[in-house]
Write a structure and sequence with these properties.
Elements (H helix, E strand, L loop, with lengths): L1 H8 L8 H11 L3 H6 L7 H6 E6 L6 H6 L2 E4 L2 E4 L2 E4 L4 H12 L7 E3 L3 H11 L6 E6 L7 H22 L7 E6 L5 H15 L4 H11 L3 E6 L3 H12 L5 H10 L1 E8 L2 E9 L1 H18 L5 E6 L4 H4 L2 H12 L3 E6 L2 H7 L4 E6 L6
Parallel strand pairs: 1-2, 1-6, 6-7, 11-12
Antiparallel strand pairs: 3-4, 3-5, 8-9, 8-13, 9-10, 11-13
Helix pairs in contact: 2-8, 7-8, 9-10, 13-15
């Protein structure tokens, strides 16, 4: 009875009886990932089965891309007045949520990660009999509890699985890592894409984890917010910085839009323009310049808190897409997730890439 209580209520599985651990694995082994393995190239299937990659819904990658590349997704919890709901990467549901924000709803809403217990159970749903390693890429630990919760969840799951494995004579232990991305939004997405590329090349999970610890410092996210009040609220909650109300009001009155930069666990303003269209244009120009200098991985992750058709219709997007094609760089554009929309506001635009030669 004590073992069951520990498993249900805590994160430490050290005292869990083997029979309880076995029952837990059976209960939650839904095999979600197994249905995805068939959707990816055959050469990558065994590697995807052996190494489970995970990220949360704020990674700004399309659900179809995540499914195709066998990446498990951890939903975040949105605390609304009407009750808690789980975030998803569903486009229409997200657009509806963004419209509600723009209409003045969800002013007190917050996005929070799952608890360690919930993360552990969600991880288990993606486990298969072939999984020998798991690697999670989290949003910046200084801005979210996801990293800490994922660490506790992962420790518990590894202990449970290794008890079960020993009981059936499996001498291959389950190993796992949680990597702090030092970034947010598409910055996590770029790192997920790089980890997928390494996995497809045959790199073991341990090497991927070591590589990501160095790679993450080269990841940059540029943001063009539309409504500065969302930026001010996010700065207060996540950066522990207060933007004076008069600056927000003045910026709104003069239509001044900052260009924000996230990198290596720091956030700063690296410029400002008049009008959202000019801000988005400048982010495109900066991204194009970085691509010409050379990217550290051939992937650009873009998101927009609105209909992506608005971005696709711009001359800057058409030019960047052509440049990416010529340089064999994958360009991902998706609707900004619910978490991103809450933190940055409707019509915010963000671009993430990895570069060792970043120049503002």
């Amino acid at each position: 009875m004590q073992s069951t209580s520990v498993l249900d209520e805590g994160y430490d599985a050290l005292d869990v009886a083997t029979n309880v651990a076995v029952e837990y694995v059976r209960k939650f082994q839904a095999g979600d990932l197994s249905r995805l393995i068939g959707a990816i190239p055959a050469a990558a299937s065994p590697r995807a089965a052996r190494t489970l990659l995970l990220a949360d819904t704020a990674c700004e990658l399309p659900q179809a891309w995540l499914d195709h590349n066998a990446v498990g997704v951890m939903p975040r919890t949105l605390t609304l007045r009407s009750g808690d709901v789980l975030e998803s990467r569903d486009r229409e549901r997200t657009l509806k949520f963004i419209r509600e924000i723009e209409a003045g709803e969800h002013t007190e809403a917050h996005s929070v990660p799952l608890s360690p217990l919930q993360i552990r159970d969600q991880m288990q749903k993606y486990m298969t009999s072939e999984t020998n390693a798991a690697l999670q890429l989290s949003s910046s630990a200084s801005r979210s509890k996801y990293f800490v919760n994922a660490l506790a969840a992962t420790q518990s799951l590894v202990l449970i699985h290794n008890k079960v494995r020993r009981s059936v004579g499996n001498k291959t232990p389950l190993t796992a890592w949680v990597v702090d991305s030092l970034n947010a939004f598409g910055g996590v997405g770029v790192q997920v894409a790089h980890a997928v590329m390494l996995r497809e090349r045959g790199a073991p999970a341990s090497d991927i984890a070591v590589t990501m610890n160095a790679f993450r410092r080269n990841v940059h996210t540029l943001i063009a917010p539309h409504d500065l009040s969302f930026v001010a609220r996010t700065a207060h909650h996540t950066e522990r910085a207060n933007i004076p109300r008069w600056k927000v009001d003045l910026g709104g009155a003069l239509n001044i839009k900052p260009i924000l930069h996230l990198n290596a666990d720091s956030a700063s303003s690296i410029g400002r323009t008049w009008g959202q269209a000019k801000a988005i244009e400048r982010v495109f120009r900066m991204t194009e310049a970085q691509l010409n200098l050379g990217l550290a991985t051939p992937f650009i992750c873009m998101s927009y808190a609105g209909r992506v058709e608005e971005i696709e219709a711009t001359a800057e997007y058409v030019a960047l897409r052509a440049l990416c094609h010529r340089n064999s760089v994958a360009l991902s554009l998706t609707t900004m997730g619910m978490t991103g929309a809450l933190m940055l506001g409707p019509r915010a635009f963000a671009v993430s890439f990895a570069s060792q030669h970043f120049k503002a």
